[in-house]
């Protein structure tokens, strides 16, 4: 790549954005903050009852700003290195350089840290250094914090949230240890350079926070705290890499999206905490009144999950385990609406109860229940992990969702099919409509998947599941050959966001190329240009399916108006409103590349691929694709596709994968370490 070793993965600026919401984020799966922000958030720690519940604000000891009061010829840079998961601030004068690094440790998830390094660049014995602005106050509007005794030189506070999510429910809390921050750091006399490291540990118990802090101190003593973090990121990138020989803005957007999404997933192995899902703005956001208060939506299951599953099935499983743990809340949700089975909440926090502050969405936007199950289906097809379903609660959830859909349908004598009435589709400009085509299609898919799993497990399939799946109405206009968004939809009515186009992908609802094209052409011009960022990615995927590459690219290019400089933070809407660090939009963008350009489609029987990408992309290399325990590397050019198996299952009974050319039926066996070229692209 022409722009250096990092290929667009390092974002550097000489100034910070004027809007603090657009500052870079440093998070792991447990802790998160924006740089220079006075609060941090902890995975699963919410305060407030039901509709008022929000991520609890915890005061942030890493909110430190380095300044130099009077230095000649001072140069200043701010850098987010997505490869190392580190934010840096460098002050360079004629006599010395001062570097401030901030990071949330990727593998030791209870730790955040920052370091200050001062290095002389001239032979002088004058004292040099910088001042540290640390406005930290150990108080919170969401936790009742108490001061405990110092531990190994660290200050200590602990406390619980003030108001439980549900009456009588748990009040999660946190224990925090942090290294005190001096007002200034200096080099004296003959000192040529020195580093100081500052540690923050947050956990759910005194025992865990002390253990984590001690582990961090030991790594500092060994000189390897930051290197252990960068090693974890290097390992993460090795297992999940998208290299694209094409326009620099596209590469930068890709690396930014991957960085922010990978920051949110649990590390491999036992992370040592229960994962509570991913909200649209991630852990760096979600205080009261911000970024949907840190709640979990379909954004996680539909927009972020497929990208995570493609590379890291173990992290994808953690997302599904969150849904399994909150199943009781979903069962309560179905019961409260007067139906059987599990109705997942439109907005979920710690308990799985509906926490949306506006009743209409929780009551009507029921497609979320099918979205959750579609993630389970994608996982099942990709991994064949039967343990999750047989032993770890997955089958109970599958059955409860199927039961809900059957209970939610009503029979129409007039049309001789089942209807689902009074819903809000993904297009939230319309509500209380009957037979939303997306809702009904995702319900049908839920029921078909439930029946398929039952057959796999040799469990009797309830006749009701089969009957409802076969006879649910999926609106279709046979004359115009397109899918109306709902009963009574009139062509030309404005649409908020991607809705009907989702039938083609990710639902893969059966339809001809003609109908797919008609759906795209019907809804593209009436979709709100100011709508949420993920929309255009799905139009791009649709046009790529039809090999309309330029039309696809014109849709994908719309996303760039949602990407802000200099740190590639996404905003939900192109006018800057809505959620920031909008992982949902990033997830859609990544799917346009990972499933659009490549044509990857995961089905019950195969991983299909059918690439298409624009003229200004010469090569696409996707490393770390996970399928049935294998790891694959795809190298795609306009002339050929190369597939390499980089890892195979250790099960001696596992059969090697085969690549099959659909037109000719020719088969290529894929064995670990060998490269196969199954044909031209």
From TrEMBL:
<dbReference type="Pfam" id="PF03633">
    <property type="entry name" value="Glyco_hydro_65C"/>
</dbReference>
<dbReference type="InterPro" id="IPR005194">
    <property type="entry name" value="Glyco_hydro_65_C"/>
</dbReference>
<dbReference type="InterPro" id="IPR012341">
    <property type="entry name" value="6hp_glycosidase-like_sf"/>
</dbReference>
<dbReference type="GO" id="GO:0047402">
    <property type="term" value="F:protein-glucosylgalactosylhydroxylysine glucosidase activity"/>
</dbReference>
<dbReference type="InterPro" id="IPR008928">
    <property type="entry name" value="6-hairpin_glycosidase_sf"/>
</dbReference>
<dbReference type="InterPro" id="IPR005195">
    <property type="entry name" value="Glyco_hydro_65_M"/>
</dbReference>
<feature type="domain" description="Glycoside hydrolase family 65 central catalytic">
    <location>
        <begin position="285"/>
        <end position="489"/>
    </location>
</feature>
<dbReference type="Pfam" id="PF03632">
    <property type="entry name" value="Glyco_hydro_65m"/>
</dbReference>
<keyword id="KW-0378">Hydrolase</keyword>
<comment type="function">
    <text>Catalyzes the hydrolysis of glucose from the disaccharide unit linked to hydroxylysine residues of collagen and collagen-like proteins.</text>
</comment>
<comment type="similarity">
    <text>Belongs to the glycosyl hydrolase 65 family.</text>
</comment>
<feature type="domain" description="Glycoside hydrolase family 65 C-terminal">
    <location>
        <begin position="601"/>
        <end position="648"/>
    </location>
</feature>
<dbReference type="GO" id="GO:0005829">
    <property type="term" value="C:cytosol"/>
</dbReference>
<dbReference type="GO" id="GO:0005975">
    <property type="term" value="P:carbohydrate metabolic process"/>
</dbReference>
<keyword id="KW-0326">Glycosidase</keyword>
<protein>
    <recommendedName>
        <fullName>Protein-glucosylgalactosylhydroxylysine glucosidase</fullName>
        <ecNumber>3.2.1.107</ecNumber>
    </recommendedName>
</protein>
